[in-house]
Amino acid sequence: MRFDLVAAHADLFWAGIFMTLKLTVASLAIGMVIALPVAVLRMRRIPYLDGFLRGYVFVFRGTPMLVQTYLVYYGVAQFEAVRQSILWPLLRDPFICALIAFSLNTAAYTAEILRGALEATPKGEVEAAEAIGMTRLQVLRRIVIPGPFAVPCRNMATR
């Protein structure tokens, strides 16, 4: 390895590290915002919406992220309607295209993880909440959604 080249271009390496961190943090945040509603809607199994969401998760989990990034960056530009739209200044920026592809990929994986965790909520907790008069939305907001995030706390309390 030629360390003289690394030292000569250290500013480029630092810029690349900063860009990678910025892209990672932003795509994780956006992916989580997308993943929670997708997981809740997948758990509800609404007939037509469930098929669409299953397809979304299947496609994004089943294709390589490089292919997804190429499709967002190169594929969207093939349509004249997209190039004439108000979104084109954003969609021709490589960072935004990578952010879209990474966020959608992260959301698909995270939605499946959250859906599994949400469905693992003990039936007794849900029945107890319904027994005291909570609505379905209250049960979801107060019992089901916080459940997966509270699991590490429960395990620590039993030790």
Query: What order do the helices and strands follow?
Result: HHHHHHHHHH
**Beta-strand proportion:** under 5%
CATH fold group of the largest domain: MetI-like fold
Structural class: mainly alpha
**Tally of extended strands?**
0
Largest sheet: none
What is the molecular shape?
extended
Which CATH architecture of the largest domain?
A: Orthogonal Bundle
Topology overview:
Elements: H1 3-8, H2 10-44, H3 47-62, H4 65-75, H5 80-83, H6 88-91, H7 94-119, H8 123-131, H9 136-144, H10 146-157
Helix pairs in contact: 2-3, 2-7, 3-7, 4-7, 8-9
3D structure, described in words:
The protein is 83% helix and 0% strand. The protein is mainly alpha-helical and 159 residues long. It folds into two domains: 118 residues, MetI-like fold (Orthogonal Bundle); 39 residues, no CATH class.
Overview in brief:
The protein has 159 residues and is mainly α. It has helices at 3-8, 10-44, 47-62, 65-75, 80-83, 88-91, 94-119, 123-131, 136-144, 146-157.
Top keywords for this entry?
mainly alpha, MetI-like fold, 2 domains, 10 helices
